[in-house]
Amino acid sequence: MLKIPTVAIVDDDGGVRTSLTSLVRSLGYQVRAYTSAREFLDDKQSPEPDCMIADIQMPHMTGDRLQAVLSSSGRSFPIIFMTAFPSEAVRDRVMAAGARDYLEKPPDSDVIARRLADLLGPR
To answer: Model-level pTM?
Structure first.
């Protein structure tokens, strides 16, 4: 039996989180949604996701800080970042640290579908 890949969505905006969750599920992937980077890091019960879609601008811990914490603890999976406030400096930093993409909000659903298919295989 093939394992269905799991995508973690980390975004403090409930509307974005809900729409991304619906989109990713409709593409055939499993989804776990988190309201913050801390909520994701505190989830010790769930297995590692196969991919993450995360916002950059979140209170308490930004997406790029989450990426650094994950990297420093040896946790490695593809991350697609999104932001409503694009910056070349942040883009360059997260991409240099291994991010797979840096998208402007609102993300295009076709782009998300292609990126996930590239990273996880089509569903």
So the answer is: 0.95
